[in-house]
Design a protein that fits this description.
globular, about 10% strand, Rossmann fold, 2 domains, six-stranded parallel sheet, single chain
Length: about 280
C-alpha cells in the first residue's frame, strides 16, 4: 500500500509569507517543499550564466561550470550574488565591487529590465529557462494528498514569474529571497512546513524537501535539530547541466556530495519525486 493516502485536493494553499501562520485546508498525507532553481526550472542559461557574466564583467575571466559547482558544494553559497562576489575574491581581484553594485550588474544580465516591472519588458537571461515540470505535476501531487510549496533563494519577482505566469499556479505557497534568512538557515523551510502541515511534531505529517544543492540538504539537517520529533526527508536531484551523458562523471561526484551532506535519496529528475517520496515513507 502506498505510504501516501489518495486524498483529493482541488486547490493548494495561498502564499505562506503571512502572519499568523496559515490554517491548512485539508490534512495532508505528506508535505513536499521544493527549491525552484535547478528543480522546477533549468537555470544553467540564466542564473548560472549571470554568475559567469558578472564575474567576467569585473575580472575579464569567466569561471567554468565546475568552479561554480565546487563553490555550491561548500553549502554556504546559495545566494548567487554572494557566490559571484566570492568567485571574484578567490580569483584575486584586487578591487572588489560593492555588493550593491554587483547586484545591479547581475540583475542587468538576469532580468534585463526592472525586476519589479512588467515581465514582458524583461530582455535578460530569465527568458531562457526551460521548465522541468508542468502544472499537471502539481495536480498529481494534490491528488495523492500531498501539500506542496516552494522554499527558494530566488528573488520574489523571478520566483513568482516561473510559478504563476509560466506554470500557471494560483498563489502558490512560497518563501523566496528576503522572506526568511538564506538557506541553509531552516527558518523559512520550517515556517512553510508548519503552515502546510498545520503543526510540526511527532503527530504531524512527514515533511520532505527536494533541492539540488548541498545547502538544500543541510537546511533539512538543521530543521531536524530544531524540530527533533518531526519526521523530515531530504530528497536531492542533480541540476540539469549535469544530466547529459557527457557529464556522467561530474554528476556522479555531485550526487556523492549530496549524499555525504545527508540526503536520504538522490532522484533522477524532479518528476520522479512522488514515487521516491512514497518509497522513502514506506
Amino acid at each position: 500500500m502506498s505510504a501516501l493516502k489518495a486524498e483529493s485536493q482541488t486547490t493548494n494553499l495561498p502564499a505562506a509569507v503571512v502572519h499568523p501562520p496559515l490554517t491548512p485546508r485539508f490534512s495532508p498525507s505528506a508535505v513536499l517543499l521544493f527549491d525552484i532553481d535547478g528543480v522546477i526550472r533549468d537555470v544553467g542559461g540564466s542564473y548560472r550564466r549571470a554568475i559567469v557574466e558578472t564575474v567576467h564583467h569585473y575580472s575579464g575571466t569567466r569561471p567554468d561550470p565546475d568552479a561554480i559547482d565546487a563553490l555550491k558544494a561548500e553549502g554556504c553559497w546559495n545566494n548567487d550574488w554572494a557566490a559571484s562576489l566570492e568567485l571574484l575574491r578567490r580569483g584575486g581581484l584586487a578591487d572588489l565591487p560593492s555588493f550593491d553594485a554587483l547586484v545591479e550588474v547581475f540583475n542587468g544580465f538576469y532580468f534585463g529590465g526592472d525586476p519589479e516591472g512588467d515581465p514582458n519588458s524583461w530582455e535578460g537571461f530569465i527568458g531562457q529557462e526551460p521548465l522541468l515540470v508542468s502544472a499537471e505535476f502539481f495536480e498529481q501531487l494534490s491528488a495523492a494528498g500531498v501539500a506542496w510549496g516552494f522554499v527558494s533563494g530566488a528573488e520574489p519577482p523571478s520566483a513568482r514569474f516561473v510559478l504563476e505566469q509560466r506554470l500557471g499556479l494560483s498563489s502558490p505557497p512560497l518563501i523566496a529571497m528576503g522572506d526568511a534568512p538564506d538557506k541553509p538557515d531552516p527558518t523559512g523551510f520550517l515556517r512553510l512546513a508548519a503552515a502546510l502541515a498545520g503543526e510540526l511534531g511527532a503527530a504531524a505529517a512527514p515533511v520532505a524537501y527536494l533541492g539540488d544543492t548541498v545547502a538544500d540538504v543541510i537546511t533539512v539537517q538543521r530543521a531536524r535539530q530544531q524540530q527533533p520529533h518531526q519526521r523530515f526527508v531530504s530528497l536531492a536531484v542533480a541540476p540539469p547541466h549535469l544530466q547529459g551523458q557527457e557529464a556522467r562523471a561530474q554528476r556522479h561526484r555531485y550526487e556523492l556530495q549530496l549524499r555525504e551532506a545527508g540526503a536520504d535519496a538522490v532522484i533522477p529528475h524532479t518528476a520522479a519525486v512522488l514515487a521516491s517520496l512514497e518509497q522513502a515513507l514506506a
